[in-house]
């Protein structure tokens, strides 16, 4: 079983979440940072986990593009989707998936996760700091990665049937 984790983040939270996720998976795992220009062919993997950070309601662009460009292949693999974001409302998290992932892929994905967030004020630009202070009302860095959610996601991925996934 080989797994591709393809992710796009900006300030490091998504990367850290993916490194956590890797620890919960068996077999060979390849981590690809789409935001840094890395890429991979999902056809080379049995399982593909794709995700990224949410900024102003949008999934980080490189993750969105990866999902769109590889849609046909992704519909043939065991697929998981994940997000990093600060919004705690489950309803909003569902909306993020619906707004950012092609509908066919969303219904094909067997596992979905929301991994929480981090705010790194030292890595944000002026406008990002301003938005977080004014809109989210958070004034300093915080680490709210949801390690339990990442573990649950990893176990759900591990329970995937290796064969017979034709949906
Ligand atoms: C400018 C800005 C806008 C954001 N917009 C959203 C948002 O619309 N919804 C949300 O759930 N989280 C939002 N977040 C929180 C990020 O998704 C969160 O900090 C995430 O952990 C960032 O991941 P990264 O460090 O991998 O870039 C925003 C953060 C910043 C700095």
Would you mind describing this structure in some detail?
It is a single chain. The protein is an alpha/beta fold. The chain has helices at 13-23, 61-69, 71-74, 90-100, 103-108, 126-136, 147-158; strands at 2-8, 28-33, 47-55, 58-59, 78-84, 111-114, 116-119, 142-145. Strands 1, 2, 3, 4, 5 and 6 form a 6-stranded mixed β-sheet that branches. Helix 1 (13-23) crosses helix 7. It is globular. The model has no long low-confidence stretch (mean pLDDT 95).
Task: Give me some keywords for this one.
Rossmann fold; six-stranded mixed beta sheet; two-stranded antiparallel ribbon; 7 helices
Structural topology:
Blueprint: E1 2-8, H1 13-23, E2 28-33, E3 47-55, E4 58-59, H2 61-69, H3 71-74, E5 78-84, H4 90-100, H5 103-108, E6 111-114, E7 116-119, H6 126-136, E8 142-145, H7 147-158
Parallel strand pairs: 1-2, 1-3, 3-5, 5-6
Antiparallel strand pairs: 3-4, 7-8
Structural class designation: alpha/beta
* Strand tally: 8
CATH class (first level) name: Alpha Beta
What is the gyration radius calculated from CA atoms? 15 Å
User: Quick one: overall form?
Assistant: globular
| The CATH architecture | 3-Layer(aba) Sandwich
Treating each run of at least 4 consecutive H or I residues as one helix, how many helices? 7
Q: What is the mean pLDDT? A: 95
Specify the CATH homologous superfamily.
Flavodoxin domain
Range of helix content: 25-40%
Q: Which residue ranges are poorly predicted, with pLDDT under 50 across at least 5 consecutive positions? A: none
Bound chemical compounds:
flavin mononucleotide
